[in-house]
């Protein structure tokens, strides 16, 4: 068995010479077996092992017993070990998340701390083949996408050398070689969905329908992974860079088959480390055929916005936009903050993009800054006639919720610049000749 796993390690380059590996060590049979595997691999590869043990304080004396066992085991093998004590129940309550998610968060934050302290470059996790199968069934029951049915996700610095070994084979190896390990008695309580799948569902299917059920599921997961590789989408085909953010073009996505559409959305969610459940993806696709602006709240304080032909994801802002009800008067030069916008002036001979405007204004000129009023008109750059600002906002597809907060800059009651949207023909500066440049940017970009 060790030879077989060593071959997998070498073929997949899970471990290479010079690696420093953190092993998540609970003291249970899986992590003890993984340590035996790594100890065997050290005969053929040059790498270091660091143990990491988390006491979740969930099982009283038994948790403390696991901690002592792990420390003693590390001492016996002359390996460094880091131990963290953290209440999984407290974290669960504080962050309003489940016990499993709280435990995972504690562990991976701890791994990150150790990695920084020890300059480790990989983390070894003792997931076995039964874990993969339970994850598949758990997600199938919840209604996961095809990507989710791949089982336990891979991460670039995390290795799972024993993920193709059945639990029974692990226990048999340890018992035959008289290698001690700890037992977590909560694994035999079916209060949690995963435990119930392990203790009730799988044995029932094996007994009633197919004794090789786990093997069939393993083969299916392997096929799903192969299919997902073939159907992998290239997000860059559907992305556009607009207003300093990457957006997805709805019209391009709608040209694809429905399954590929779902794949695109799932890949986009993954960019932000968000879950791509069937229900969430379905709700996002629903807004493709709706008019106007739409917002969908996602987890982790993210939101998905839809404007005309584009959608994008951003962090939800706690700042509320409010209309500027008063007129602000300033003499050039100035730098002011208005409603989360920074507006400033400077001398220059060039400007770039829509957020800068090189004008024929002069030092000492007095400008007014306010928001749009009914009847506002501007003579746009390159035109000799006036256009209503309201119509410009519609034509430029400016979101309704931001039209009332965009600063409008005037001189002698003539609109110089609808900031970041339209520049005034009568106020344009001469190319390569010094003038006053107006600049606008969001305060949160500073």
From TrEMBL:
It catalyses: cytidine(34) in tRNA(Ile2) + L-lysine + ATP = lysidine(34) in tRNA(Ile2) + AMP + diphosphate + H(+). InterPro entries: Lysidine-tRNA-synth_C (IPR012796), Rossmann-like_a/b/a_fold (IPR014729), TilS/TtcA_N (IPR011063), tRNA_Ile_lys_synt (IPR012094), tRNA_Ile_lys_synt_N (IPR012795). It holds the Pfam family ATP_bind_3. Its EC number is 6.3.4.19. The keyword Ligase applies. Keywords: ATP-binding, Cytoplasm, Ligase, Nucleotide-binding, tRNA processing. It is found in: Cytoplasm. It is an enzyme of class 6 (ligase). CDD domains: TilS_N (cd01992). It comes from the Bacteria. Signal peptide: none annotated. SUPFAM superfamilies: Adenine nucleotide alpha hydrolases-like (SSF52402), PheT/TilS domain (SSF56037). GO terms for molecular function: tRNA(Ile)-lysidine synthase activity. SMART domains: TilS_C. Belongs to the tRNA(Ile)-lysidine synthase family. Ligates lysine onto the cytidine present at position 34 of the AUA codon-specific tRNA(Ile) that contains the anticodon CAU, in an ATP-dependent manner. Cytidine is converted to lysidine, thus changing the amino acid specificity of the tRNA from methionine to isoleucine. The N-terminal region contains the highly conserved SGGXDS motif, predicted to be a P-loop motif involved in ATP binding. HAMAP family: tRNA_Ile_lys_synt. This is tRNA(Ile)-lysidine synthase. The lineage of its organism: Bacteria, Fusobacteriati, Fusobacteriota, Fusobacteriia, Fusobacteriales.
């Amino acid at each position: 068995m060790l030879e077989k796993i060593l071959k997998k390690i070498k073929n997949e380059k899970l471990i290479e010479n010079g690696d420093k590996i953190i092993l998540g060590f609970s003291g249970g049979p899986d992590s003890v077996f993984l340590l035996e595997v790594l100890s065997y691999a050290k005969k053929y590869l040059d790498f270091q092992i660091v143990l990491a043990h988390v006491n979740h304080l969930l099982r009283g004396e038994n948790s403390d017993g696991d901690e002592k066992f792990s420390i003693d085991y590390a001492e016996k093998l002359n390996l460094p070990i880091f131990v963290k004590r953290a209440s999984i129940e407290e974290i669960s309550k504080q962050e309003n998340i489940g016990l499993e998610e709280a435990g995972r968060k504690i562990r991976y934050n701890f791994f990150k701390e150790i990695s920084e302290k020890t300059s480790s470059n990989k983390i070894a996790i003792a997931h076995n083949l039964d874990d993969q199968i339970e994850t598949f069934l758990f997600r199938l029951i919840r209604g996961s996408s095809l990507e989710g049915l791949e089982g336990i996700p891979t991460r670039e610095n995390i290795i799972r050398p024993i993920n193709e070994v059945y639990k029974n084979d692990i226990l048999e190896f340890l018992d035959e070689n008289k290698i001690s390990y700890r037992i977590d008695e909560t694994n035999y309580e079916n209060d949690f969905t995963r435990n119930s799948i392990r203790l009730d569902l799988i044995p029932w299917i094996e007994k009633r329908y197919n004794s090789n059920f786990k093997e069939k599921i393993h083969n299916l997961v392997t096929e799903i992974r192969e299919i997902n590789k073939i159907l992998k989408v290239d997000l860059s085909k559907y992305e556009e860079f607009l207003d300093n953010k990457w957006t997805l073009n709805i019209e391009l996505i709608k040209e694809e088959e429905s399954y590929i559409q779902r794949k695109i959305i799932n890949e986009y969610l993954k960019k932000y480390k968000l879950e791509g459940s069937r229900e969430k993806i379905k709700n996002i696709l629903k807004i493709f055929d709706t008019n106007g602006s739409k917002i969908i709240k996602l987890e982790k304080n993210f939101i998905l916005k839809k404007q005309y032909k584009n959608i994008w994801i951003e962090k939800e802002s706690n700042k509320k936009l409010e209309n500027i009800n008063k007129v602000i008067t300033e003499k050039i030069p100035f730098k002011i903050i208005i409603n989360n916008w920074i507006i400033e002036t400077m001398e220059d001979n060039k400007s770039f993009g829509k957020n800068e405007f090189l004008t024929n204004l002069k030092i000492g000129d007095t400008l007014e800054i306010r928001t749009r009023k009914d009847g506002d008109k501007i003579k746009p750059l390159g035109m000799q006639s006036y256009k209503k600002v309201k119509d410009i906002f519609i034509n430029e597809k400016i979101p309704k919720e931001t039209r009332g907060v965009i600063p409008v800059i005037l001189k002698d009651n003539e609109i110089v610049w609808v900031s970041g949207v339209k520049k005034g023909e009568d106020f344009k500066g001469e190319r390569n000749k010094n003038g006053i440049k107006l600049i606008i940017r969001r305060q949160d970009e500073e």
